[in-house]
Design brief:
alpha+beta; Glutaredoxin; 2 domains; two-stranded antiparallel ribbon
């Protein structure tokens, strides 16, 4: 895949585009960003992307198409010898875990703060929408239809007036814990970014770090988090606040997991663990009833996960992508030697994350034709 710079079809307001963009920037990979709204994109690119129109989608000079930010990161990681993947087992597992938490564990705060506050956000979102639409489609009616679609998606992900107080409470705790960690470390695992940082950019940057409702919250309560989102979007190291940091350009030595990171995992576990267990139960029930053929496309979700968080009942679609990512975490754990596994157990026990190691689907997931597929 050589020749002209790769084209990334995406938008600034797209969380998954933020994940891929930051990777391409940090890896110094040339690309051109274009809107996923042209007739050519719909007619020529989407069919090569498994018939799924999502952001980001990538087109190489030779016509090859890769859909999904995680997939493009994996492609380049495989090509580069896993430049942004820690070589030590505990940090590798934690990096993949935070990639999963960012990619599939931040939907509710990200979607809530974007779509539950139209008076604050819609003018900003309209401007972003209109600017990428081709002539003839730059209408409020067209924009409203797209916004309604996303508001409905937020509801399916568990955003409602009933869950709003819980979402805001948990987000405040997540922001405080992330702020505490980034006060001490420039990136999640030390002095250089890992796949953890790219996964976490999805909602922390695109929704929570840019939208008018959420941005002031981060500016007031998470200035180090806001600076991290900025640092993830520049080629330079951007070391201003970390001139005396002892591990710049490397991960924390000796495969250590900072206590501030364990504290952050613990906050995530409050709703991530019960949702994961409930989603596994829902998808496994579907698998038992349907027994999909190997290689067949896995839908984005199967039924609903019903779970309780701090006395608040939550209902959210059971997402398959969560388990596609969790498989990697579980396999890293299973490959650990006995001593390392015991160390990892102690960390995950303290973080209340141990259940994610056994929260598995009865069928593994792979990729085929640019989509997740049942193996």
């Amino acid at each position: 895949m050589t020749g002209a710079p790769m084209i990334m079809y995406g938008m600034k307001v797209s969380g998954n585009t933020a994940r891929a963009r930051s990777y391409l920037i940090k890896a110094s990979i040339p690309y051109v960003e274009k809107a996923p709204a042209t007739l050519r994109f719909i007619q020529e690119i989407v069919p090569k992307a498994g018939g799924v129109r999502t952001m980001p989608t990538f087109e190489f000079a030779d016509g090859t198409v890769i859909r999904d930010g995680g997939a493009i990161i994996q492609y380049y990681e495989d090509q580069s010898g896993h430049t942004f993947s820690p070589k030590t087992p505990k940090q590798n597992l934690v990096s993949r875990l935070f990639d999963t938490l960012g990619a599939d564990g931040m939907f509710r705060p990200g979607m809530h703060y974007r779509w539950s506050f139209p008076d604050d956000n819609l003018d900003f979102l309209n401007w972003n929408t209109f600017r990428i639409l081709p002539p003839g489609f730059q209408t409020q009616e067209f924009a409203d239809a797209g916004h309604k679609q996303m508001q409905d998606a937020a509801k399916r992900l568990g955003v409602s007036p009933q869950t709003a107080p819980l979402i805001e409470e948990l987000y405040a705790e997540q922001l405080a814990a992330f702020e505490a960690h980034l006060t001490d470390h420039p990136y999640i695992l030390g002095g250089r970014p890992s796949v953890a940082d790219f996964g976490m950019m999805i909602m922390w940057h695109a929704h929570l770090g840019r939208d008018p409702k959420a941005l002031p919250i981060m500016q007031k309560n998470g200035p180090a988090v806001l600076r991290w989102t900025e640092r993830m979007n520049v080629h330079a190291e951007d070391t201003t606040e970390y001139e005396t940091y002892p591990h710049w350009g490397e991960f924390v030595p000796e495969d250590a997991i900072p206590q501030t990171l364990i504290n952050l995992m613990k906050v995530y576990a409050v709703d991530y663990v019960p949702e994961t267990l409930a989603a596994a139960q829902s998808i496994n029930a579907w698998l038992a009833d349907n027994a999909p053929e190997p290689g067949s496309k896995a839908e984005r979700s199967y039924g609903y996960a019903q779970f309780d968080v701090r006395g608040t009942p939550v209902s959210a679609t059971a997402q398959t992508y969560r388990f596609y990512l969790l498989q990697r975490v579980q396999k890293i754990y299973e490959a650990m030697d006995k001593t390392t596994r015991a160390d990892m157990d102690a960390i995950l026990e303290e973080a209340n994350m141990m259940p994610i190691l056994t929260a598995k689907l009865n069928r593994e997931l792979g990729r085929a034709n640019n989509c997740e597929a049942w193996l």
